[in-house]
Amino acid sequence: MSTAKARRDRRHAIAEEARTRSTARGRTHPPSPRPPICLRPRRERPLRSDFNVRYSGGVAERTVDRQAWADFIAQAITDHAGGNTTRFAEMVGVKYKTVRRWLTKQTDVSEESIRAVGRALNIKPSVLLVRVGLYAATEVDATPAPDLSATDDPALQEILKANVSPRTKQRMIERLQEMRQREVDEVKWWIDQARGA
Q1: Which of 30, 126, 166, 172 is least enclosed, having the fewest CB within 10 Å?
Q2: CA distances from 101 to 15, 87, 97, 105, 161 (A)
Q3: Is 114 exposed, middle or buried (0-12, 13-18, 19+ CB in 10 A)?
């Protein structure tokens, strides 16, 4: 008999002996304790300003004007991707086939897709939702966001001239707008401090 087998047999014998002793005294081994349930509260994430809620029933479904959407997409491909549909699809984060279906009006467009295109192109999603007929202007805040003009802004001119992908340009423009908003917030803070002084 090998030593490993002898050790294993000895362990089994000791365990069996312990079991019979506790049973003789009228007790059995309690079940092994389960680990306690660890409940961690979820951190609440702030909702994006263009957050939408889906209702399960009783709410009429809205449809997008496919012609208006196709016209918008065609113009956006020209303006933002230099007429390249594949580049536009990559920039927006959808497949080429999806963009082709939008252009040929073969499929309905979801509200989430419209919002995603708006975010990718730096267009306020609510403006785009009104433009394609999903909502009326009175139902959402459809005031267009202030647009940066390339003629007035040398930083924006540099971004537009840069030899990078359209998606990278879009991210740079978004970052530039965030920086500008922080500058405005800082100036407001200075004004508040000056009033308090």
Answers
A1: 30
A2: 70, 16, 6, 6, 31
A3: buried
Q: How many other CB atoms are there within 10 angstroms of residue 59's CB atom?
A: 9
Residue positions counted in the chain:
197
DSSP helix/strand/coil, 97:
helix
Is the pTM here over 0.70, yes or no? no
Using DSSP's 3-state secondary structure scheme, residue 174 falls into: helix
How many Cβ atoms are within 10 Å of 142's Cβ, its own excluded? 17
Residue with tokens 């922080």: 182
Written as tens digits, the pLDDT of the chain (197 aa) is 578 888 888 888 888 887 777 665 655 556 566 666 666 665 655 555 555 555 555 555 677 888 989 999 999 898 888 889 998 898 888 899 999 999 998 888 888 888 888 888 878 888 888 888 888 777 776 565 555 555 677 887 888 788 887 778 778 888 888 888 888 889 888 888 888 86
Between CA 132 and CA 67 the distance in angstroms is 8
Beta-strand ranges (E) seen in the chain are: none
Quick one: which of 67, 136, 149 has its CA closest to 103?
Answer: 67
Distance of alpha carbon 109 from alpha carbon 103, whole angstroms: 11
